[in-house]
Design a protein that fits this description.
The protein is α+β, with helices and mostly antiparallel strands. The chain has helices spanning 30-40, 81-91, 97-110, 114-122, 125-135, 141-155, 166-177, 184-199, 201-210, 213-220, 225-241, 244-256, 259-268, 276-291, 294-297, 306-328, 333-346, 365-377, 379-390, 400-414, 438-457, 464-480, 486-495, 498-512, 518-545, 609-613, 618-624, 648-661, 669-686; strands at 7-13, 20-25, 49-53, 74-79, 547-551, 560-566, 572-578, 592-595, 599-604, 627-634, 637-644. Strands 2-1-4-3 form a four-stranded mixed beta sheet. A four-stranded antiparallel beta sheet has the order 5-6-7-8. The longest helix is centred in the last third of the chain and has 28 residues, at 518-545. InterPro entries: ARM-like, ARM-type_fold, ELMO_ARM, ELMO_dom, ELMO_domain-containing, PH-like_dom_sf, PH_domain.
């Protein structure tokens, strides 16, 4: 029979006695339970005793927390908290150093318990501990236990930090500034000052005045990790409490003292694993460091500010310096303004007056700062980006200024610039400690990534938001890997191309739909040959229907049209010139034929002879993406049948069909997408009857063979 819900089975122990196994009735008063326990061990005065957890935090059991006791808990019978507090505080008055040390050690051990802490505080225990700390007669274990006990008692919040005197604070600060042999004393003093700085701004200001940054740097550069952690904790607390101007001055000083390099080399890349507390403080330091960008992020551009107008002109001149000098000389003021407006539009601003683009805050002036940094620190990449896109005439130009403004906003969102620090987060990026101007350098990498992704997507202005979504995903995925340096970030994010993002999305979607289970993967592999054959037949059927292709002459005129198709028996390519606007001719009317048996290879893009002959002009780059050729035997020489597809889709259909005729694999993006779509549809159709039935990752085990086969019926034996 199960015990009642309000009864738990526990063990109670006491030094030198046989433990008791009892069923604790939670409805019974705790005083009555203590009386029964004391009676079992023949102890008088049960009110002088209390129950504690035997391990871990040694928490006292009270009426308010007794519901936390679980079945199997081990408790111990100990002196009641009020009696223990009185005994220990009396021991602090002893002149014997060992007695005082033992009492402080016991106080520090029990102080985390709220019940015990309340009894100590009610008996003026904080004042007695404060006197020991202020006296500082013993700078060893006695002082260390005193600091630990005092900090634990204050952490309960029963007494306000505001009540501490300036003399007390200065005395604790002196322990930080001393060169002590026992590292535990400055470590505990640093922890106490951190709590004080976070809890009391006035006393925190006093700590800031009394603790020089040089001293914190000394503690940070020791090999003692706990001391390093406490020094970093106090440093971040002082930075958080400082005004924006003071914080900037403090961080500039620390950076000049090479704190960033020390953190990167000796803390982040230390042989000792980074603790959770240090990781949190590095996250806070990173947030405060990036937070210095917030005022610029929230300040819109002022069109009447002369300095900001000059910065915009410098940005324009860095891209169009030669054009501006040659075209702008000798022009009237109106023509010069018109030229500047046109160049700003080429630079990628949405308005001829760039101030209108930068009026939105965020990202405000931070976007202008990033563009200026990119133009001055990576001038070749900047000029290449702007000139490459401003000279395009096919609506595929990537607007530099608009992209920079949106990218700056995206980076601010991903890095939580301007947001308050979390109290528990540990999500810092090591690369921000790897070099100076880390945010601006990150922008330089990301703006070039955006341009690369734009070209991979063959995007137009209408696709701007789609490109930014892909870039957001590229940055989010790469930042989640926590690259240890900007170069590693550059390598990883550039490897995450647009096609790779699509593949990852598809894989994640399949995982969410449960289509990556092993039986499903095996089913997809079995279906794949059948579906590839279906796609192959469709491609050949499309070749039989034929397509009109244009011939491009040496003057780049697309003035001739020719038609090509595959014969119904798939043995001949039939082709010939046709009139502009004419309907598809009948295959038998086409004058030229190429037997499939004589075809040797399929060439794509730059490998095609008609692309090589046209050179590397700007227009030829687009033609190159749609060009393909078929090589065949023409007597003793090799000849080519050259194509330029009217669209990307036709290019994929024809190259797949010709590859199939040549016995090769159909490797176009169109085939990959169609195969994935057909696999998904066919798999879902096959699994309709298994809806809501969980599919195991592993097949069920095959049972062992039977011990005998007497159940088998021999059909060859005729019945009588």
């Amino acid at each position: 029979m199960a015990p009642p819900k309000n009864v738990v089975k526990i063990a109670i122990q006491m030094p030198g006695a046989i433990p008791q196994l009892i069923e604790l009735d939670q409805a019974k008063p705790l005083a009555a339970v203590l009386k029964e326990v004391c009676n079992f061990w023949n102890l008088n005065d049960p009110e002088h005793y209390a129950l504690q957890y035997a391990d871990g935090h040694r928490k006292y059991i009270t009426e308010s927390n007794r519901s936390e006791i679980k079945n199997g808990s081990i408790l111990s019978l100990s002196i009641a908290p009020d009696k223990e507090a009185e005994r220990l505080l009396n021991a602090l008055q002893s002149g014997n150093r060992e007695v005082k040390r033992e009492a402080l050690s016991r106080l520090a051990l029990l102080a985390p318990d709220l019940t015990f802490a309340g009894e100590v505080i009610n008996r003026d225990g904080l004042q007695r501990l404060g006197a020991i700390i202020e006296d500082g007669d013993d700078l060893g274990e006695v002082l260390a236990h005193g600091l630990r006990a005092f900090s634990e008692l204050m952490e309960h919040g029963v007494v306000s930090w505001e009540t501490l005197s300036c003399n007390f604070v200065k005395k604790v600060v002196s322990y930080v500034n001393m060169n002590l042999m026992d590292a535990s004393v400055p470590q505990l003093a640093l922890g106490l000052l951190e709590s004080l700085a976070l809890s009391s701004p006035p006393l925190g200001q006093l700590v800031k005045q009394e603790v020089p940054l040089e001293r914190l740097l000394v503690h940070l550069q020791v090999l003692n990790q706990p001391l390093q952690t406490k020094a970093m904790a106090l440093l971040t607390a002082l930075l958080q409490n400082a005004s924006f101007a003071d914080r900037q001055i403090m961080l500039d000083y620390l950076w000049r003292k090479n704190l960033r390099q020390f953190i990167y080399k000796n803390i982040i890349h230390s042989s000792t694993p980074l603790g959770d507390e240090m990781a949190h403080h590095l996250y806070v330091l990173q947030a405060l460091m990036l937070g210095l960008l917030e005022p610029r992020m929230r300040t819109p551009l002022d069109p009447y500010n002369q300095e900001q107008r000059e910065q915009l002109q410098a940005l324009r001149q860095a891209a169009f310096e030669l054009d501006g000098e040659s075209q702008g000389s000798g022009l009237s003021a109106d023509r010069r303004r018109s030229l500047c407006a046109r160049e700003f539009r080429k630079l990628g601003f949405s308005n001829s007056n760039p101030a209108q683009d930068l009026e939105r805050a965020p990202p405000g002036l931070l976007a202008l700062d990033n563009m200026l940094y990119f133009s001055s620190h990576a001038p070749n990449a900047y000029s290449r980006f702007v000139l490459e896109n401003s000279s395009r005439e096919d609506k595929h130009e990537c607007p530099f200024a608009r992209s920079s403004i949106q990218l700056t906003l995206l980076l601010c969102e991903l890095l939580h610039i301007g947001e308050p620090c979390s109290e528990t987060a540990q999500d810092f990026s090591p690369m921000f400690f790897g070099q100076d101007n880390s945010f601006q350098e990150l922008f330089c990498v990301c703006i070039q990534l955006l341009n690369k992704t734009w070209k991979e997507m063959r995007a137009t202005q209408e696709d701007f938001d789609k490109v930014m979504q892909v870039v957001r995903e590229q940055l989010t995925r790469t930042l989640a890997l926590k690259p240890t340096s900007l170069e590693l970030f550059r390598t990883k994010v550039n490897a995450l191309s647009y096609s790779e993002v699509l593949r990852l999305r598809q894989t994640e979607r399949m995982h969410q739909e449960g289509t990556m289970a092993r039986p499903i993967v095996e089913l997809r592999e079995r279906l794949k040959p059948e579906l590839l054959e279906l796609i192959r037949q469709q491609r050949l059927l499309r070749l039989c229907q034929g397509t009109l292709f244009r011939k491009i002459s040496s003057r780049r005129r697309q003035d001739k049209v020719w038609f090509c198709c595959l014969s119904p028996n798939h043995k001949m390519l039939q082709f010939g010139d046709v009139e502009e606007g004419a309907a598809h001719p009948a295959p038998e009317s086409l004058p030229d034929k190429l037997p499939v048996a004589e075809m040797r290879a399929l060439l794509l893009g730059k490998d095609c002879p008609h692309v090589r002959e046209k050179g590397s002009g700007k227009q030829n780059k687009d033609v190159c993406e749609l060009a393909f050729s078929v090589s065949y035997d023409a007597g003793e020489e090799e000849a080519y049948l050259n194509f330029i597809a009217p669209s990307k889709r036709e290019f994929c259909l024809w190259t797949d069909g010709l590859s199939a005729l040549l016995g090769g694999a159909m490797g176009s993006e169109q085939t990959r997408m169609e195969l994935e779509l057909l696999l998904a549809m066919e798999t879902k159709l096959r699994l309709l009857e298994l809806e809501n039935v969980p599919i195991p990752d592993q097949p069920p085990p095959v049972p062992p063979p039977p011990t005998n086969y007497n159940f088998c019926y021999d059909c060859s034996i005729a019945e009588p």
